[in-house]
Specification:
two-stranded antiparallel ribbon; alpha+beta; 6 strands; 182 residues
Amino acid sequence: AATFPSGLIDAELFGNQANYPNAGMPERPGLIGEADRSSLFLDEIGELPQELQAHLLRVLDRGEYQRLGDAKVRSADVRFIAATNRPVDQLKHDLLARLALRIEAPGLNDRREDILLIARRILNEIAAGDPGLGQRFFAKWNGRSGSPRMSADLARALTLHDYSTHVRELGSILWHSLATSR
């Protein structure tokens, strides 16, 4: 949600009729139309301005929406999943009321026992994208996964590090470690 250009949020979410707002524009179903009978994940929903958060209320209530330039009311059966790093009280109160089920994920500093498991997953993803790294840094690399070779010093440093951006920061540290490791 944070990457939507402010003037195009409605078009991105709800879609638009052909030739609207400009001649030659193709018809687009929008993210909500594309997500009909499935789920739509809106990452960083707290970055949407409150007036634009209000545009989602009718969809959340009744599944109804309108494409830009279209008089026809459409409906979509969509499960909305949203995430934000902002305090939930910064969301528009009526939007927050409609997102009733909330899961709060603790940061890495609160679950240090998971850090090495998450690090292994990140390293597997990195190595899957670069087979040379897989061959170099993994024991028993099979092209998709393996056991990353990690020094005890690195494992201890990762576990004791004070994280502020959590998994992104862990990934950055791992990339730096790969780049500087012999």
